[in-house]
Design goal:
Strands 1, 2, 3, 4, 5 and 6 form a 6-stranded mixed beta sheet that branches. β4 and β5 form a beta hairpin. α1 runs antiparallel to α4. The C terminus is likely disordered. The protein has one domain: Alpha-Beta Plaits. It is α+β, with helices and mostly antiparallel strands. It is globular, with a radius of gyration of 17 Å.
Length: about 150
Amino acid sequence: MEIKFREFNPFDIWFWIEFDHVPSEMEKQYIEELFNSWFYLGKLGGFNAENLQIQDLGIDISYMDYDHDLAENSMMSPMHNMGEFEFLSNWGRCWFDLGTSDLIGIDILINALRELGKEYVGISQFIIGGENEDWRIDKKENDGFSEEY
């Protein structure tokens, strides 16, 4: 699966997936559930790079003292909105307002998509940001949110 980055505006960004075939209903469901789950974690502030205490400690976390003050005093980092996932031929896309979530969330999404692509859904490429020449964005689509969670 190829990963491409285009123009990046975290408050108005499209994610594009090119499949290696027209996806079946089950494959569409896998993709939608992955993105919905990723959004819910982001909406709850899960992608907060300021509070990565366990990751920052390293491999030995036995008997670690979790710093509740650090966690409590870190800046909130929630995602704000997600549009409805759409499919057209061998393409899928979804719009997001990533809010103040940290970019670690995109790494996590890419990792999950790579594994999903290996096991369940043939994905040719994942494009972050910009517009797709094969499927133009109607600017009116972004005037309001397609769907709020």
